[in-house]
Amino acid sequence: MPSGADSLGVFPLPHSHLAIRHLIRQLEIRGRSPRPHAPPEWLKDLLHQAADFFDPCSGDARAGYECRQTPNGWEAAIFLGANECVGGRDDGRIQPTNFRFDVRALLERFDRTESVIWSAFPESDAATPNDRSFLTVKGTVGGERVTLQICAGPPESCGPAMKIYSDGRYELC
């Protein structure tokens, strides 16, 4: 799913972005209902499971996702958010998270897969990593059609997922 797609999973806030599951919890706490066309529970479950298949190469990471319903089923993209360094010589630096991803475990969550395609554009001058490399899985989950992309990085519109302080503390954004 292109980073400019009409999405439901990551929402802009004044200084950061949060995954939809956190935003939904906050809206429920305040007594308001989430946006119309919010992803169904089965899709949120799939995305939460997929988030567990990320293995950051070092440090901590936070997964986020975008999703939308189309006439052909649900489309979703999942990614690890970038971290912002706070304090020390790297203060203010936004760094993406290197990771491994267990593709086999993800495929086991699908009832049936139609295709698994890795797209890589190493010579691209794309603004964000998710435009340069992503894995796309198309298939069915619980009888529903799903297209899921595992992106190399967050969409350009996302701010940092976490602030990492020079003393090792972290703060979710």
Radius of gyration: 16 Å
Shape: elongated
Give the low-confidence spans: 1-36
Give the strand tally.
Answer: 13
Strand content: 35-45%
Number of domains: 1
Q: How many helices does DSSP assign?
A: 3
One letter per element, helices H and strands E, the order comes to EEHHEEEEEEHEEEEE
Distance between the termini: 24 Å
Largest sheet: 5 strands, mixed
The chain-level mean pLDDT equals: 77
Helix share, percent: 10-25%
Strand order of the largest sheet: 4-5-11-10-9
Q: What class, by secondary structure content?
A: alpha+beta
Describe this structure as you would to a colleague.
The protein has 173 residues and is an alpha+beta fold. The protein has one domain (10-172). 16% of the residues lie in helices and 39% in strands. The protein has helices spanning 20-29, 41-52, 103-107, and strands at residues 10-12, 17-19, 54-56, 63-70, 73-80, 83-86, 94-95, 99-101, 112-120, 133-141, 144-151, 162-165, 170-172. The strands form 4 sheets. The protein has a 5-stranded mixed sheet, with helices on one face. The chain has a 4-stranded mixed sheet with strand order 7-6-12-13, with no helix packed on it. A two-stranded antiparallel ribbon has the order 1-2. Strand 12 (162-165) and strand 13 (170-172) form a beta hairpin. The radius of gyration is 16 Å and the shape is elongated.
